[in-house]
Amino acid sequence: MDLKKLAGQAGQFLTRAVQYTEEKIGSAEKTELDGHFESLSHQADSARHWTEKMLVGAESVLIPNPGNRVEDMIFEKIEKRRPNRLSNLEYFGLDMVQAGNDFGSGTAYGSALLKVGGAEQRLGMVEREFISNAVQGFIQPLRKFLETEMKTITKEKRLLETKRLDLDACKSRLRKARSLDGQSSAEADLRKAQADFDRQAEITKLLLEGVRSSQAAHLRYLNELVEAQTLYYDQSHKVMVELQKELASLSLSTDDTAGATTASGVPVKASSIPETNASLTAKENGVKEGEEGGSWRRAKVVCDYDAMSRDEMSLMMNEIVWYCEKGGQSSDFVMAKRDNQTGRVPGAYLEPLDD
To answer: Where is each SH3 domain found (predicted)?
Structure first.
């Protein structure tokens, strides 16, 4: 039974191949689809082509690193949350913050580095939120459209072409029939092939008509992308305006210090100005010696963080924690503690309060 079925399928494949070859060399007629169907098919091909191009362009802009794109796609396929990944802006800001701490928050340059580094980290977090919103609201729906609707249409169009080849092969066999029995058999095959073709053409036509209606959903995805991008630029602008004000204030205070002189008219260095009781109190509140070496400093959490392992600690935005940079650990992480809880956290999620 299996051999007969296999032989029948091989015969059908050979018949289609012969029909296709004869059509190409012009010795056989080809059943043409109506103009409306061809128009719908062209629109569907155009929708697939431009959706693929827009998807590639959006991914290149939002996620420039090809490795990160592959990683995100894998996590999306297995429906698992991808690990938190700092952006380049956040790494840039983290380097500035670490440099500012090394130079000293009491110096003008060190203080400026801390402020700019914190702003760059906030910009990085705003950027990550924008990318997440754009991926969920624009990229994922377009990818789903290609992987579901367009794949189904491609499959049904391929099946329609097979039915069309079978139909034209039956027409050719009927024209070549010489006996009455041969004509009767060919006519029966033709009727069946025509019915199969008509049914498949109707199925494919309905799917093609659905592509046009999907543009309403694509318009909604486009609006979501624009809204996410507008919010991103608005938040970024606010961060930079605030940073400019802080740097301007810092410059003014630096100029005041630079203009100070002793009673004899000698300029006073910033490092030689005695600390007031208020500044000493602030330093005592902001820094305390760690029990395991190094200094524990206060910091404000700028973004929620979910611990990824047992040695890490979760953070809540706007809470105040103590942190300490210890040797031997990753430069991206610092030790933090809250009450009796201690664990590693990304330094980019903290904004120092000791400056």
So the answer is: 294-355
Cα–Cα distance for residue pair 74/77, rounded to 1 Å: 5
- Of 22-31, 139-148, 250-259, 282-291, where does mean pLDDT reach its minimum? 282-291
Tokens in use for 199? 């049914």
Domains in the chain, ordered, with CATH? Answer: 12-249 (1.20.1270.60), 281-352 (2.30.30.40)
The reported pTM is 0.62
Mean pLDDT comparison of 43-52, 103-112, 280-289, 342-351, highest-scoring range: 43-52
**Calpha distance 277→256 (Å, rounded):** 20
Paired sense of beta strands 320-324 and 350-352, if any: unpaired
- Residue 347: exposure state from Cβ atoms within 10 A (0-12, 13-18, ≥19): buried
Q: Is the per-residue pLDDT at 326 higher than 60?
A: yes
Distances (CA, A) of 326 to 105, 155, 336, 347: 19, 59, 11, 12
Work out the pLDDT band at 287, boundaries 50, 70, 90: very low
- CA-closest candidate to residue 200, choices 166, 170, 173, 171: 166
Which residue, chain included where needed, has tokens 């041969």? 182
| Residue 73: per-residue pLDDT | 66
